[in-house]
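Lab notebook, bench 4. We co-purified these components, and the gel suggests they stay together. Before we commit to crystallization screens, I want a quick structural picture of the whole thing.
Request: model the full complex, all chains together.
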Amino acid sequence: MITVEVEGRVFQVEEGTTLGDILKMAGIEGAIGGKVNGKIYDLQTPVRSSAQIIPIYKNQPESLEIMRHSLAHIMAQALKEIYGKDKVHLGVGPTTEEGFYYDVEIEGVRLSEDDLPKIEEKMREIIQKNYPILRREISREEAKRLFENLKEKYKLEIIERISPDDVISVYEQNDFVDLCRGPHIPSTGMAGAFKLTHISGAYWMGDAKRPMLQRIHGIAFWDHKDLEERLKFYEEAKKRDHRRLGRELEMFLIDETVGPGLVLWLPKGGTYRKVLEDYWREEHEKRGYQFVYTPHIGNARLWEISGHLDYYKPNMFPPMQVEQEEYFVKPMNCPFHIAIYKSKVRSYKELPIKLAELGTVYRYEMSGVLHGLMRVRGFTQDDAHIICTAEQVEDVIHETLEFAISMLRDFGFREFKVYISTKPPDAIGSQEQWEIAENSLKRAVESMNLNYEIDEGGGAFYGPKIDVKIKDAIGRLWQCSTIQFDFNLPERFDMTYVGPDNKRHRPYMIHRALLGSIERFTGVLLEHYAGALPVWLSPVQVRIIPVSEKHLPYSKELEMRLRSEGLRVETDDRQERLGAKIRDAELQKIPYVLVVGDREVQEGKVSVRSKKEGDLGSMELEDFIKHIKEKIKNKAP
RNA sequence: GCUGGCGUAGCUCAGUUGGCAGAGCGCGGGAUUUGUAAUCCCGCGGUCGUGGGUUCAAGUCCCACCGCCAGCUCCA
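Here is the predicted assembly.
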């Protein structure tokens, strides 16, 4: 007998009683599954030891996971029915954040997106038939026999990987059997609303040397309403695509003849970028950073010392030969900053030293991963290296994290997720170094009340780090800031400082970027704001629209006046109708439009239309200047 | 890099079984003098991604390469 606790009540049941029977005993109805000591079980799974049980109902996210998992099976069954049992070989079919996928190999068939409706149709049939989904626990030998007979070569491989202590279970619906740990809904009829979205390739076991399977992706929810909402979200994301916005707003360009992954900043993008970089420099100046500039290429010897040629070479552009020496285009700025640090003997009195640079680096990324501004081959890191003593580490980390969050807030982000990655097994550096570093990271995050997760053992071999992700307007997370200890480079370059004891000591080095890269961050910003950048960042802040040609002189006067106030202004002097000019300003997402006609000329006023708030009516020019300057100062959206 | 899909005017796209390259927007010229999301007319604009091949004939079929997209993998 085992003891189970359900909703505060305690029961004695036979060991191996299914969760469903236990819940029934407790008088609980409508549960999809349950959490048994924190693990999600379905109703058919036997409970083998005393446990705390929390039922899972449809309105809880965990129930979705159960249902989506079953949909993956239903899809697999549909594929087998359409393409033949022997032809379809199943890989893995897990759930995702919003649905499920299944990796399959179908002999002689290349699926295309046109095949999806047919598969969906078959899935609906299976759901309609409402087959019971039955769990069966079988021995390893039986499992092997079963999947050998089914010609499921990938499943056999999975069986090999299942640890001997684990129970092997299969789930059956009608004549379909799948190796699966579960959990599942009790019958196919309970499946919710779903849609197959796309097909892609995926290596078996994520290994490029193994065969590539076809991955069929689907999304699923209990309600059609939620499904529709999700589909709308995709449309919304598509509307916000920075690649489209970048072209429409004339921000940037990636030109095939220049090269893939290499960004050309157009004048509008250039103006925006200058504002961003000026702001960035000011903020760094306030916090005692010193600015440095370093070359784009460096001698191979430098990259040998840094170790990049050992472990980073595949990501570097091939070398160029100059006067019998090899040079590499830089993939990182650190070795240069270190050379600057080492240019003289450093005293503990001048630490921490904070060297900052908007350093443009080049990395040879595989062609398949390039993506607009988000993933490119040449980009500018908002980079800095902080060199300090052990005693200073904690303050430095605290200050840096605070800096990162404050800067991201200025750009309009309000939600952050922080990840701390700790010591991996193959790490270098002393235990003491790691402890000081990791503790400082944890304390900084805790003192700032930030929501964080620890990725145990997820750090680089050369040091622990903090990554900050931001949540954008439609809930997507983007990694921006990273604060990374480096115990490797100070050793390799023999960096030292002279301590109060007049001896040489090894400093701590921290590599950090707040925005990540200017390119990527710009992509994120564009998507976050759907192209309508806050006034302070907008390349054009005000567009003046004369109602007719005769108002052009007054418009030009206004333009000069606003320009002298430091605002970015242009006048639409085209021979177009007012409506057309308003529309174009709107499409260009210009924050403020000033309409100038007879009334405004006579009264010396301006008629203000804000992108955010619509027609604000007539205003004294001075009042408008005050208004817009306030928005700029506050970095209002 | 790998798998699949796609490359037609500056942009968005149409182009049937192989048979004279099209539209809208944009751009140039003209008319209009406009009050809060598209005024009208005319015109310029393409070696159909590049290079081979099949064919009387290729945007269309075949091959290779380049680029883009969805993923895998990787990552700022």
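The radius of gyration of chain A is 30 Å. Worth comparing against the SEC data before the next meeting. The mean pLDDT of chain A is 91.
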